[in-house]
Amino acid sequence: MTDTNHTSSAALTLGEALGNLYAEGTPPPCHGSLLWTSEDAEHRAVAAEHCPACPITAECLAAAVECREVFGVWAGHDLAKPAGRRAAQAAHEAAAA
């Protein structure tokens, strides 16, 4: 049975970081845009270009990897593509080293 009430610690950390950004009046680049979850790969590529300017990419990357996300742009990685998931995993492991 899957525990649907489980929330990863990385997801909680991301939620807290997002809350802090909103409290400061500085929403992340993905706020209010459908580009990050578009079915169009070109739209997602445009979205990924905006991620490096975000101050919480580390938290975003950790949450994406820990939660095994398989769609959307997370921390500049297009997780709809296997290569994007591998790159995200490698970046997460490098950051943890």
* Number of helical regions: 4
Strand-residue proportion: under 5%
How many domains comprise the coordinates? 1
Major sheet strand order: 1-2
The overall average pLDDT, rounded, is: 93
| Multimeric state | single chain
Order of helices and strands: HHHEEH
Ends distance: 33 Å
Structural class: mainly alpha
Query: How would the global form be characterised?
Result: globular
Biggest sheet descriptor:
2 strands, antiparallel
Low-confidence stretches: none
| Computed CA radius of gyration, to the nearest angstrom | 13 Å
| Proportion of residues in helical segments | 40-55%
**Tally of DSSP β-strands:** 2
Domain 4Fe-4S Wbl-type: 29-84
Pfam family, one: Whib
Protein name: Transcriptional regulator WhiB
Q: What's this, in brief?
A:
The chain has 97 residues and is mainly alpha-helical. Helix content is 52%, strand content 4%. The chain has one domain (9-96).
Describe this structure in words.
With 97 residues, this protein is mainly alpha-helical. The chain has one domain (9-96). The chain has 4 helices and 2 strands. It has a two-stranded antiparallel sheet with strand order 1-2. It is globular, with a radius of gyration of 13 Å. Residues 29-84 form the 4Fe-4S Wbl-type domain.
